[in-house]
Specification:
- 48% of the residues lie in helices and 15% in strands.
- The protein is α/β, with parallel strands linked by helices.
- The strands form 2 sheets. Strands 6-7-9-8-10-11-12-13 form an 8-stranded mixed sheet. Strands 2-1-5-4-3 form a 5-stranded antiparallel sheet.
- It starts with a helix and ends with a helix.
- InterPro entries: AB_hydrolase_fold, PAS, Sig_transdc_resp-reg_C-effctor, Tscrpt_reg_LuxR_C, WH-like_DNA-bd_sf.
């Protein structure tokens, strides 16, 4: 029979399925009921009341059912308002019918008013008028065109895609105008370079345009005057037979987003906002591996070992720094994260090494460095042991550390302590927490989860107010649960439950620990790790878990 405290815990488990905001209450009860001195934990974990596991399983099912109901028919308004990129809707009479906060900040216009004539280039304004006049005849959901707002300085800005959408609630058709990401793609770059006979310097300038860099910044980085860069820009435009920088960015976007022919004559899968889909490897067993490339495509290769929740998405500030430092950051999605297929077979860490080897082979990389972030550090260490001849060094930002003593466990803040403890000693129950977090992201929104996840750090909460970082975190949350919670749960269990001490003792590689004062892993625990090997070093910073994204200059200096 469950005890009185277990009855309260069971009630709390079901309460969370109804009210996700009661998650903190569940963690407190969970800690009181289960967290015991580490020395006797393994025996305690084997003697958990079977009814607790049964209730957790049922509660997970309830979450899945309610999630399916919530996802059944999301309204058009909800989709627009929750989008972190600028997006708005136009009715047939050119009235702004719906606009989100991002578009309000970007353009300054509000719902209920006519679209200002000066909002877009005259040519693009004509396209908007044309599609509004033909709205009844157009196919919904298909990309109609790529347009760009007016820019007096002629410098790169956001690109926008035009779609026809149908609102089931109002039974009206609208023209949707949505911001899209434009990212560098080597295949498209080669086409532009070969077609227009561009030099390496000119293709580099085109690449910087696509990255959204301003002419003054390009001049400073190249050590040239602004007039010199402007002259180079005019030569580039003359060669490509274009009039403005905006047209060059649009040419690149059109080639990338509307399909580039590959060697088999088939269009590559590189849709709007789908940078991650431009790099796909299919293994012999049929499982797909996705990876992303950030920074300078010809720069020094650095492999990014991502965290469990904070994955391969990067904010613009960090991407810009990678370009400036000539770093090619290769960011594979681990199995079950983002767009890589789940792998639940044996030897998952060895399977991860195989995935990375395939990615490195595809990118023609021999020797490389590793940048590991939090829980990704266990994978970084495993790669160091598996590929000692190929790895130059690794740098770990806010690294996770092994929890092998009571003092270490007590040093971790809530709720991380409960999650780590459960993943390590009660792995069968751990997926329920991932179910709850995934449901929170979808039902309570990214802002709510951000504040809860980083509530113990003033540095991180302030960082989350930066729209660029907030957008990146939101995308990270989405990717963490893209394939469900199974892969994310198993990744956490593997990373936390692995025999860390043996990894640390076997490793002879140069390891640079860069650690922040408000990190999830207490500084004192990291100091203990650094003392284990002469090749380990530690550099401390004032900041929080998000310091890599808030202060990339310091975190990547000398990498």
């Amino acid at each position: 029979m469950p005890s009185e405290s277990e009855h309260k815990l069971i009630e709390s488990i079901y309460d969370v399925t109804i009210d996700l905001a009661k998650y903190s209450d569940l963690l407190s009860l969970w800690e009181a009921e289960f967290l015991r001195p580490v020395a006797g934990t393994s025996e305690m974990a084997q003697n958990i009341d079977p009814s607790i596991e049964a209730h957790v399983t049922r509660a997970s099912t309830v979450l899945d059912m309610t999630q399916a109901q919530n996802e059944a028919t999301p309204s058009l308004r909800q989709l627009v308002i929750e989008n972190t990129l600028p997006i708005f809707m136009l009715s047939v009479d050119k009235e702004i019918s719906l606009v989100n906060d991002a578009a309000l900040d970007f353009f300054g216009f509000e719902a209920g008013k006519k679209l200002p004539e000066q909002a877009f280039e005259p040519e693009d304004g004509q396209k908007i008028d044309q599609y509004l006049n033909q709205l009844d005849e157009l196919e919904a959901g298909r990309i109609l065109a790529i347009i760009q707002p007016q820019d007096d300085e002629g410098e790169a800005s956001l690109l926008f895609a035009l779609f026809k959408v149908h609102d089931a609630e109002t039974t009206q058709d609208y023209l949707q105008i949505s911001a899209v990401h434009t990212v560098w793609n080597d295949d498209v770059a080669d086409i532009i370079k070969n077609t227009f006979a561009l030099s390496d310097a000119e293709i580099d300038l085109a690449q910087r345009y696509v990255a959204g860099e301003k002419l003054i910044n390009i001049a400073e980085e190249r050590g040239r005057s602004l007039n010199t860069v402007k002259t180079q820009s005019k030569i580039l435009l003359r060669k490509t037979k274009l009039k403005t920088q905006s047209e060059l960015v649009r040419l690149f976007s059109a080639l990338q987003n509307f399909g580039v022919q590959n060697d088999n004559g088939k269009a590559n899968d590189a849709g709007i906002g789908k940078q991650r889909h431009t790099n796909i490897i299919e293994r012999e067993d049929g499982r797909k591996i996705y990876y992303e490339i950030y920074g300078d495509p010809k720069g020094e290769p650095v492999l990014f070992a991502h965290d469990i929740i904070m994955g391969t998405k990067l904010p613009k500030k960090l991407i810009g720094y990678l370009y400036a430092q000539k770093i090619k950051l290769i960011a594979p999605h681990r199995a079950g994260y983002g767009y890589s297929d789940v792998y639940m077979g044996p030897d998952r860490l060895n399977n991860f090494v195989e995935d990375v080897s395939l990615v490195l082979e595809a990118e023609k990389v021999d020797r490389f460095k590793i940048l590991g972030f939090y829980a990704g550090s266990v994978y970084a260490f495993y790669l160091a042991i598996a590929m000692p001849q190929r790895l130059i060094k690794m740098r770990l930002i806010n690294s996770y550390v092994p929890m092998t003593s009571q003092a270490q466990m007590d040093a971790i803040p809530m709720p991380i302590k409960v999650l780590v403890y459960t993943a390590k000693y009660m792995p069968k129950l751990f997926p329920f927490f991932m179910h709850v977090m995934a449901a929170q992201v979808k039902r309570l929104g990214h802002d709510y989860v951000m504040k809860e996840y980083f509530k113990d750090s003033e540095f991180d909460l302030k960082s989350c107010q930066d729209p660029d970082i907030a957008e990146f975190i939101a995308e990270s949350f989405n990717c963490a649960f893209e394939t469900g919670t199974l892969g994310t749960s198993q990744t956490a269990i593997d990373a936390i439950g692995y025999d860390w001490p043996s990894l640390l003792k076997e490793n002879k590689m140069i390891v640079e620990y860069f650690h922040a004062s408000e990190s999830f892993s207490p500084v004192d625990l990291v100091k203990d790790i650094v003392q284990m090997q002469e090749s380990f070093s530690l550099k401390l910073f004032k900041g929080g878990q998000l310091i890599l994204y808030e202060n990339p200059e310091e975190m990547l200096k000398g990498l």
